[in-house]
Amino acid sequence: MASSDGSYDLALAAATLRANGSDVQALLSALTAELADALGDRIETTLAGGRLRKSRDIARVRIMVGDEQFEATVDGARLSCAVSHLSGGIRIRGESLDVDQWITRLVASLANEAERSDSARQALEHLVIGGNQ
Predict the structure, then answer these.
(1) What is the Rg, in whole angstroms, of the alpha carbon atoms belonging to the chain?
(2) How far apart are CA 72 and CA 62, in angstroms?
(3) What is the DSSP secondary structure assignment for residue 41, as one 8-state letter?
(4) 130 in the Ramachandran plot: left (φ > 0), alpha (ψ -120 to 50) or beta?
């Protein structure tokens, strides 16, 4: 929720995502559901399976916020998370993060961009107040 000064409760948004974190698929499903409408083509979801085996399970999520690319990849029951810094569409550097750090950084990046972008503001609001209520 937005506070009286117009800022967002980033801890609440991150905690909301973490609450779904005990199950990797629940976390990724919640994340993509809350962000898909607001971020449009800046969020890319790859489903598990292949040509012959269709699945609703998410294998990877890639989210672009500003000049950062957030990527979460399912590795069995584990989630591997990374953030890359891009310049002109070229990856300059990247780092692996644990899930909590990744969520915190994603929410902070959305908050930073929300100051300048309506779609990022909507994405952050979806995370904080929970989608289409």
Answers:
(1) 15
(2) 7
(3) G
(4) left
In terms of Cα–Cα distance, which of 125, 96, 95 is closest to 16?
125
DSSP 70-121: EEEEEETTEEEEEEEEEETTEEEEEEEE-HHHHHHHHHHHHHHHHTT-HHHH
Model pLDDT for residues 56-95, shown as the tens digit of each residue: 889 999 999 989 999 999 988 788 999 999 998 889 999 9
Residue 11: in which H helix or E strand, if any?
Answer: helix 10-19
Residue type, 20: N
DSSP for residue 6? S
pTM of the model: 0.77
Which pair of tokens denotes residue 42? 């800046």
